[in-house]
From TrEMBL:
Keyword Nuclease in record: yes
Signal peptide start-end: none
This protein's record includes keyword Nuclease: yes
Annotated ranges, domain Restriction endonuclease type IV Mrr: 8-117
Annotated GO MF terms: endonuclease activity
This protein's name: Restriction endonuclease
Cited InterPro entries: Restrct_endonuc-II-like, Restrct_endonuc_IV_Mrr, tRNA_endonuc-like_dom_sf
Alphabetically ordered keywords of this record: Endonuclease, Hydrolase, Nuclease
Organism of origin: Bowmanella yangjiangensis
Length: 341
């Protein structure tokens, strides 16, 4: 059912319809992900590599846009596309757009451009406004200028082009770390490196705490959360948690109810510290999940477990120019929507 589609998929489908309204012949690219791009477009006998990025945050970090741009150029060249286009759901300020266009030989398209293109079929504007939750009085005249597809530069090899591979390297490092007490130090080092890579501008402070349970259960950091992206802003403004606890548990099995109870004791309302994120190799068992639900339902404390699979997914999201906090938002959203009485 359409309503069950995740927002990023709805956005991709809508972008496809808007491009087709602009007379592009659009095909879903069979090589998507790390080595591909979302759509192959044809216009005036020229082939386009088209990548679509959905972000929950209206003004996404430029570094993510750059990562996505570098990858669509590299993948577009490998598949012999003539030109390339990066379409984002966020807003590109005139300054950022100029900086990006001077560095990358592709067309950058943001929500303002999409809304202007959608005017050829007004029903598409309604869909876009609803999906991006835009105000009906939203104005698209703040920086839009008419784009000529003919004037877009052709793709060319640039020796200075740098594709981010740090996420893959960290995934490979995680795979080498054995589970269990004797390897907790390596796991702590990995988790610290992963957090700094994933959220370099979102977290600050990094106040280190002591270890408990002989080192295998660690209350490692308390960080101060910023409000530049939607997830951290939600924690600060809606959950009244200016600070976030991070724990790294290198258990061989799923964490249990007792470990969650220990974590909950670290969360203090008066200290504006009501959120904990637990890195745990194998996730949480059903009793631990029930304890997390109870902590949220009874005390407003949010505890999120991140297993190896979710951590790898976030690392590759960041590498590909997606915002890893969007996955955290999705996990939180699903947790709160399914919270039992």
């Amino acid at each position: 059912m359409q309503d069950l589609m995740p927002p990023w998929k709805k956005f991709e489908d809508l972008v496809k319809k808007i491009l087709e309204a602009q007379l592009f012949d659009i095909q879903v690219n069979p090589l998507r992900g790390d080595n591909g791009f979302d759509f192959t477009g044809t216009l005036a006998h020229e082939s386009w590599a088209i990548e679509v990025k959905y972000y929950r945050t209206a003004r996404v970090r430029p570094s993510l846009i750059e990562s996505a741009a570098a990858r669509v150029i590299s993948n577009g060249l490998s598949q012999r596309a003539s030109k390339a286009m990066l379409i984002v759901s966020s807003l590109l300020t005139p300054e950022i757009r100029v900086a990006l266009e001077s560095k990358y030989s592709i067309l950058f398209v943001d929500r303002v451009d999409l809304r202007s293109w959608a005017t050829v079929k007004p029903s598409l504007i309604d869909e876009l406004d609803a999906l991006l939750e835009l105000d009906p009085n939203y104005s698209n005249d703040n920086h839009f200028t008419s784009i000529s597809f003919d004037s877009v530069k052709r793709l060319e090899r640039n020796s200075a082009l740098s594709v981010d591979n740090e996420g893959t390297a960290l995934c490979e490092k995680l795979a080498t770390i054995k589970k269990g007490k004797s390897h907790w130090a390596k796991y702590e080092t990995f988790c610290t490196e992963a957090l700094h890579y994933l959220f370099p501008n979102d977290l600050s402070g990094w106040h280190k705490q002591m270890s408990v349970d002989g080192g295998i259960s660690r209350y490692d950091f308390v960080c101060r959360a910023g409000t530049a992206t939607e997830f951290w802003k939600f924690l600060v403004e809606n959950l009244n948690s200016r600070y976030v606890v991070f724990e790294f548990k290198n258990y061989s099995e799923k964490i249990k109810q007792g470990q969650v109870l220990t974590t909950e004791k670290y969360l203090l309302e008066r200290a504006l510290r009501k959120v904990a994120i637990i890195f745990t190799r194998s996730g949480a068992d059903k009793n631990a999940v029930k304890m997390m639900q109870g902590a949220m339902r009874e005390h407003g404390k949010l505890i999120l477990p991140l297993d190896d699979e979710l951590v790898r997914k976030m690392l590759l999201m960041k590498e590909n120019g997606n915002d890893p906090t969007d996955l955290l938002f999705e996990i939180t959203d699903n947790f709160l929507l399914s919270l039992p009485r």
